[in-house]
Amino acid sequence: MKKATIKITFLGTCACDFSPKLDKELKDKLDCDARRSSSVLLNDNFLIDCGTHTINSLDILKIDKTKITDLFITHLHSDHYDIDNIKMLAKNHSIPLNLWVREDADIPEILNVNVIKMKSFVRYEVKGAYITSLLANHDQDSFPQHFLIESNDKKIFYGCDGAWILNPTYYYLKDARLDMAILDCTCGDYVGDYRIAEHNTIPMIRQLLPSLKSFGIIDDNTKIYLSHLAPSLHKPHSDTVKIAQEFGAYVAYDGLIQEI
What we know:
Largest sheet: 7 strands, mixed
CATH architecture: 4-Layer Sandwich
Distance between the termini: 16 Å
Radius of gyration: 17 Å
Helix content: 10-25%
CATH class: Alpha Beta
Strand order of the largest sheet: 6-5-4-3-2-1-14
Shape: globular
Number of helices: 5
Structural class: alpha/beta
Strand content: 25-35%
CATH topology: Metallo-beta-lactamase, Chain A
């Protein structure tokens, strides 16, 4: 019998410096260098973030939106949390869409949406999986959170839009032995960027990974994916792939599908 897996579909992998091509020649197709707003779909039913381009990405990939039962929001910036797109996602559902946000986030009433507030470091059972909200180092007015997803004996850390890993989150993940870590990589392969208080650079990730390994959070089998890249701060995708290979990481791109 084939062992159960988790399918991860990267719907978008960009920070917020979107290419104008997305509204013109790339309106109906995906491109590695003209990235859409960051979002991933786990299997067919768990969506992380629904921002500027998420509905467009779902349509391009011909994904059945009515199968999405739960939407987990990392924070309330519009490239991750777009009210109009959430309404569009929820409107054709036969039952309300569950919208999971940090416990102190202020969310307006949305038709056919059931808002669920998440407490940090509480492990929520959701349709046979477990989702934990973790503290994130990002603009606190946007109510940021990272996620630990556990399903089918697999563990995924989703940590986009946040720099480093905050101390309580770091200790919560001790000895987790993640199967996959999806890390913010907003900034490119250089030093001196002012954004390091809330976004990672490639040199920061180079330094971070050995510490995560020494603390048992990752091991040699963990797949490391870089996402939430700002194209204006990075070299072209193909060059970034080569840079990441040097320290054992992969670079996510829009439309990438992986199974663990």
